Amino acid sequence: MEDVLILGIESSCDETACSVVKNGREVLSDVIASQADFHEQYGGVVPELASRMHVDSIYPTIEKALSDADVTLDDISAIAVTYGPGLVGALLVGLSAAKGLSAASGKPLVGVNHLKGHIAANYLCFPELQPPFLCLCVSGGNTMIVKVSGYTDMEVLGRTRDDAAGEAIDKIARVIGLGYPGGPKMDKAGQGGDINAYTFPKTHMKDTLDFSFSGLKTAALNMINQNRQKGIDIDLADFAASYQHAIATVLLTNTIKASEDTGIKKICLAGGVSANSFLRKAFDEEAGKRGLKLYYPSLKLCTDNGSMIASAGYFEYINGTRHSLDLNAKPSLELN
Prior knowledge:
Shape: globular
CATH architecture of the largest domain: 2-Layer Sandwich
Helix content: 40-55%
Number of helices: 11
Order of helices and strands: EEEHHEHEHEEEHHHHEHEHH
Strand order of the largest sheet: 3-2-1-4-5
Radius of gyration: 20 Å
Structural class: alpha/beta
Number of strands: 10
């Protein structure tokens, strides 16, 4: 069978990324032009500036990805590109580049849901992984439990009703002075801290697998403000450890419940927050007790990258997915 090479393009937020992946599993190149250092001065991603930086980086990133893979556009089977969810201006840059390449080369265009890309990152790290499995997809913009019945067949079993877990971490990271990007800095700050030093509410909704993190975030804000008013210093390591452990506990509890409800014992983590050490430790410990098979991507593949889009694009491509050149960006694209 002839190899299928997919060129994957990702530009949903502040990473301009492009990769070439063979047969959905083997990464031939992985190029990322990150904007994180630039946006750090603003305390978060500035959408308009992100879009402009994508414009500057998109074609050099694509050229390097092809060069690093030692292929040309003629060797590519299809062009996969993120078309949502994400920042609309950022999405349009990658999408426009992909459509231009498709029109010029005659290669098929395959639009990819960004969340399916995060889930597919696990295929790149575990060649043996096949559906069905459950995936906890958790990031700064999304938190959901997904039943992956097939490579392109997915169902959301539970999602956040307010803040995403990553958003709850990022906001508190800014309040306590850690800055941007909040997730990695909060994780580092909590190392060696006591997870039981501070108590936070853990919201569990009856008869649903949905999440809510607004109450936990508000409790953390109140605790910080009350201690400041009293002139009491919060122990940073203990606070960061306790807060992240509370979030991890809620994520773990609902995912275990989903496993019990469905009978599925293979569980994947995906998305930026899947790199969090507190989350991984909680899942590792519980998986060992319950005999669950646990998968999570390498740290590099947890954050936005082109390889995950190329992998997801491969499975869409062999399933017959093709998009016309009028494909538009969908910033609020749903997974289902």
